[in-house]
Amino acid sequence: MTRIGLIDTTVRDGNQSNWGATGLDTSMMVGIAPTMDRIGFDAIDFTTSTHMAVAVRFSKQDPWERLRLFRKAAPRTKLSFLTTGMRFISWEVASHELMEFAFGLLVRNGIDRFAVMDPMNNVPAMRTMADLTRKAGGGDIVAALTFTLSPMHDDAHFADAARNLTQGGKFDRLYLKDPGGLVTPERAQTLIPAIRAAIGTLPFEFHSHCTIGLAPFSYATAAGLGIDSLHTSASAAANGTGQPGMVPTLRNLRDLGITVDVDDEAVAEMDAWFQTVAKAEGLTMGAPGEFDRSYFRHQMPGGMMGTMKRQLAEMKRLHLLPQVLEEVEQVRADLGYPIMVTPFSQLVGSQALLNVLSGKRYETVPDEVTRYVLGRFGAPAMPMNAEVEDRIRSSKRAKELDEEPRMGSLDELRAKIGKGYSDEEFLLRAVMPADQVDAMIAAGPAQTQYNPDRRALKYLVSELTKRPEVSGFKLSKPGFSVSLGM
């Protein structure tokens, strides 16, 4: 009988895709960690360097403390860190020395699984990253092969990449990462067997998104084709542009006669917890996306799509979204078909947005797009549009960026930042603005107990104090009463 395991994505990808990575704080994660530890997940997709930066910047919470607290509360389940190329928080390409240092700190604080992704599926770069991770003490190294659509990305391409990645024993597992939710059931029937044949008996995972409603169907198809684990979220953070829900996925797999060894009582408890959190915090619970063929062209992943919609809405120009998405297709082709995943989805999306808003293509070019064209992120899979490449390369800003100093060595960074910091705080200061780290330190330790009633009361008080016509209020219910004079 076929057995399939689950990788939970609630606190990382579900949180990112549907809630902009800011929906959950430390107390909301730690409060349910013991229950998640009982479920029997193959692993919990816990964080990335970007999520660590968000914890500092928006929540003023220490991401290292968050990791340690969760690890202590969930000691049995693997906690996974997703790399996004040779970078840690900063957009600047980091040295091997800094990456190994960062990985060592992650291991020391509780990460025991690393999903190694390169935004260009650069096999040599991923193998190098696996070596750095292993050297830093990483024990469970997973090759994250990112799916995309382009004139060159056929089944044979992905099978060859998987074979080259996994030869030599550098990786313990491989997962097919589908950030756009573009793997159809029909494509799964050919792609997954091709990759399975290329990697032999190595454990094989599948990760997709519900952006256009395909992932639940593709998961059901993939389950019988050699997949060992599927990535799912609690229902509150599932669907939308996130992963399929854990509960319906369990139900569908078992209906297919597949065994999934999890604690069903703990599953229900976890699902209820995140629903309570979402309701208390006013977080939108995702619904399965409608099928939209245009995604096969622009391939905008869920997190970036949400960001783009928010930016346009704030400018009161949401009506421009269809035009921006059309421009995304053209910009991606101009830049050599980069895979639409962090950081390239942000680069392509930002450039497309600027092109549409200004009415002139490439009149304004963000520094990160210029760095991409200069080769800071490696070579694209296909040649760039020669005219666009020359225009960006010959700009005054390109010359300035080409001459800017690179991120220094650890010794140089320590000399610049100063002494007296822990390794964890030093690393944050090396890659983030000092004022953001200072604000995090000033905020003190994170709360570990989450009370949804208290959060709702805090919101009520905050809103009432904004109204000058309200001089005070009293709220009471059986066993509880609070009054406030303003």
Describe this structure in words.
It is a single chain. This protein is of the alpha/beta class and 486 residues long. Helices cover 50% and strands 11% of the residues. The protein has three domains: 5-281, Alpha-Beta Barrel (TIM Barrel); 295-403, Cyclin A, domain 1, CATH 1.10.472; 455-485, no CATH class. The chain contains 23 helices and ten strands. Strands 1-2-3-4-5-6-7-8 form an eight-stranded parallel β-barrel, surrounded by five helices. A two-stranded antiparallel sheet has the order 9-10. Strand 5, helix 8 and strand 6 (173-178) form a beta-alpha-beta unit. The model has no long low-confidence stretch (mean pLDDT 92).
Radius of gyration: 23 Å
CATH architectural group of the largest domain: Alpha-Beta Barrel
Q: What's the level 1 CATH class of the largest domain?
A: Alpha Beta
- CATH superfamily of the largest domain, by name, is Aldolase class I
Poorly predicted runs are none
- Helix segment count? 23
How many E strands? 10
Number of domains: 3
The coarse overall form would be globular
CATH structural fold name of the largest domain = TIM Barrel
Helix-strand makeup class: alpha/beta
Query: N-to-C terminal Cα separation, in Å?
Result: 66 Å
Mean pLDDT reading: 92
- For the report, how would you describe the main beta sheet? 8 strands, parallel, barrel
> How large a portion of the residues is in β-strands, by DSSP E?
5-15%
DSSP helix fraction: 40-55%
